[in-house]
Specification:
With 181 residues, the chain is α+β, with helices and mostly antiparallel strands. The chain has a single domain, classed as Bifunctional nuclease domain. Helices cover 30% and strands 29% of the residues. Strand 4 and strand 5 form a beta hairpin. Helix 1 packs parallel to helix 3 and helix 2 crosses helix 3.
């Protein structure tokens, strides 16, 4: 396993899909993962330190774990199978390390809030390099970052912020997911 950090967010210029970019400290390994807008916005809000009046889902999970005496010790991106990334969240509770299956985007968002390390298996990094870039939802997006996409480091520039706002404003309600009430 190689420890990585969130290097930033980017927008794929072809698909306008958000990407989280993980990078190790040496800069030798980089892993871009395509996200849905909801998870990307959760990561972006944390990176930008945007104050919210109510906790977001990942904040709620961290708070619940804390109230129950548990903590996130690390997250691992363990597999890339059939164009889908797999992750595990390691939760320490009463001296026992429990493993929770998760999407990498949720695992990364929770790791940021819990200040927990993000680890990626060497097999995932090797496989991801061979197939370029894979959409974490398993839909087979295979686009390189390409010209015009650049990692967005914290804090966002006015230009980057405007690009995110423009993307959010252009999205139709059904692109945020369909939930019946």
């Amino acid at each position: 396993m190689i420890e990585m950090r969130v290097a930033g967010l980017a927008l794929d210029p072809g698909t306008q899909m958000p990407i989280v970019i993980l990078r190790d400290d040496s800069g030798e390994h980089t892993l871009p993962i395509w996200l849905r807008l909801v998870e990307a916005s959760a990561i972006a809000m944390f990176l930008e330190r945007i104050p919210l009046s109510r906790p977001m889902t990942h904040d709620l999970i961290r708070n619940l774990l804390g109230e129950l005496g548990a903590s996130v010790t690390r997250v691992e991106i363990t597999e890339l199978r059939e164009n889908t990334f797999y992750a595990l969240i390691h939760v320490q509770h009463q001296g026992v390390d429990r493993l929770i299956d998760a999407r990498p985007s949720d695992a990364v968002a929770l790791a940021l809030r819990a200040n927990a390390p993000i680890l990626v298996s060497e097999e995932v990094l090797a496989h991801a390099r061979r197939v370029e870039v894979i959409d974490e939802r398993g839909e087979g997006e295979r686009a390189a970052l390409g010209e015009g996409a650049r990692p967005m480091a914290t804090p966002l520039t006015d230009e980057d912020r405007a690009r995110w706002v423009e993307l959010f404003e252009k999205m139709a309600p059904d692109q945020f997911g369909k939930y019946k009430m």
